[in-house]
Each structure stands twice: as C-alpha cells, then as structure tokens.
Write a structure and sequence with these properties.
Belongs to the universal stress protein A family. By secondary structure, the protein is α/β, with parallel strands linked by helices. It has 8 helices and 10 strands.
C-alpha cells in the first residue's frame, strides 16, 4: 500500500464528511504526511432550464466555507499535519478522481448531500469507488475507534494479496493486530438417483484444511511483519457476513479491489456493497 502520497479527503460539509476529514487527519499523522481537503462545486445546473439561476460565485463562496470548516475539524484532531485545501469547479467525482492520481490514500464519508460522500446514493460514489487510482477508505460506523484489530478479508486471489499488504501496513501504523478472515462454503453432498449420497469430509477436517491454506498464505507477511500479531478466523459462511460481524470489534476492515467472489469479490459486487452499507467501522479498499 502506497503511504508516500498525501491523504486526500473529499467533503461536502455534511456530518459524515466531517467525520471523514477527522479520520483522514489522524491517518495523515500516522503516515507522517500531508492532508489535502477538497471540495468541488458544479455550476452546470445554473443554466439548466426550469431551475432558478444562481451566480457561480455564490457556489464558490459556499465551497470555500465548506473547506474552511473542514480544516477546522482537522485541526481539532491534530496540529502536526500540513493541511492543504482545494476548491475547484466541476463535476465532484471527476475533480476528486483527478486529484486522487497524486494521492497515497483517498477518503470519503459513507453518505452526504449528493457530493463526494453520497457513496451509496448515486453515480458519484460509484464512479469514485470504481475508478479511484489509489486505495480508498469509506469512513462509517465507529470512525474514531482506537482499539481492535485490522480485519482483512483473505483468499488466494490478487485482491486477497492486496488486502493483506494493506492490512499489515495499516496494523503496523496502528500498533494493532491483524485479524485474517477467510470464509468457505460447506459442500453439499451430490445426489445421484438410485445411489447413496457421497458424504462430504467432516466439518472439522474441512475447517482444518482451509486454516492450513490461510496459514500458508500468511507465511510471507508474518515474516515481513514480525512485530504485527496475527489472529485467524476461518469459518463456513459468507465473506460479507463474516467481515461485517468482525467489523464490530475492529478499527478498520480491509478488502481487495478484485478477487474470486469469496472474500474479496468485486468492489461493487455483493461483498463490497454489504460492507459499505453495514460495516461498523471504516472500510479500506486496497488497490494495486
């Protein structure tokens, strides 16, 4: 996970956006980097027939107020992080994605007023999470929790490996353990008419087999991060269900941006959507 670029946070002035700004400020301090607070204002609607006309300068003034308030919110969290602000005209998603090209991390809230943080509500959130060129964090739930593990959804896919890279990096920054979560499906015995069913392996044997696979996957990271304690949860069930459950005792949940559909899945597929809707802590989507 790239930790060299600034932490970029998008804000529209809503309460979830302010929470995202505070989280981003703390994260920038952990990384020893800078914080960039960005808001954009779209003036194209001002000339739309049927809508009241509005001076674009008014929208710019409002945007300046939003970043000023956000900077103050960041200042209540830390005073040692260089803070830069950006106010730009244009489509919010496009502006944010443009500036994310030089960021080490992109942070947004989980909902808002139709700007950056309307993650579950419209096209802005879908575009940002689908096309962001860097790792993204969606701040939700207990955004200020300072204890608990960093939870990583793990499988053998490239996305699973991205998740582990990001999780171990985040855990080291937080002096926290990694909880590696692996979900598997219990096989159903095949049924052939006229023949007795072929019974699957005993549940404990299946769990042991998956646990050994996870231990093999983790070996490299255990060696690279000997200072990071590792916990493992291997269970039958759905990846989303296990990760959401683990989020209630975590300070961060990490998933990869692509995968098999077991743990990491596709970001905007079922696993990603369920985490972004239901996780009780911030969700980090690792991107290679």
């Amino acid at each position: 996970m790239n930790t060299s670029g600034p932490v970029l946070v998008g804000t529209d002035g809503s309460a979830p956006a302010q929470a995202a700004v505070r989280w981003a400020a703390i994260e920038a301090q952990r990384r020893g980097g800078a914080l960039t607070i960005l808001t954009a204002y779209d003036t194209t609607w001002a000339a739309t027939p049927g809508l009241p006309r509005r001076d674009p300068a008014d929208a710019a003034d409002l945007a300046e107020e939003i970043v000023t308030d956000a900077r103050a919110a960041a200042g209540t969290t830390t005073f040692t992080v260089p803070v830069h602000t950006v106010v730009a005209p244009g489509d919010p998603a496009a502006v944010l994605l443009h500036h994310a090209a030089n960021a080490g991390l992109l942070v947004v809230g989980h909902r808002g007023r139709g700007g950056f943080t309307s993650l579950m509500l419209g096209s802005v959130g879908q575009r940002v999470t689908t096309h962001a060129p860097c790792t993204t964090v969606v701040v939700r739930g207990r955004s200020t929790a300072a204890d608990g593990p960093v939870v990583a959804g793990v499988d053998s896919s490239p996305g699973g490996r991205l998740a582990l890279d990001a999780a171990f990096t985040a855990a080291r920054l937080r002096h926290a353990p990694v909880l590696a979560v692996h979900a598997y499906a219990e096989p159903l015995p095949p049924v052939t008419p006229g023949l007795p069913p072929i019974l699957p392996p005993p549940a404990e044997d299946l769990a042991r087999c998956h646990a050994e696979q996870v231990d093999d996957l983790l070996a490299g990271w255990r060696g690279e991060y000997p200072d990071v304690p590792v916990q493992v949860q291997v269970a039958a069930g759905t990846a989303a269900g296990l990760l959401v459950g683990a989020s209630y005792r975590a300070q961060l949940v990490v998933v990869g941006s692509r995968g098999h559909g077991t743990v990491t899945g596709t970001l905007l597929g079922s696993v990603g959507h369920q985490l972004l809707h239901h996780a009780d802590c911030p969700v980090l989507v690792a991107r290679g």
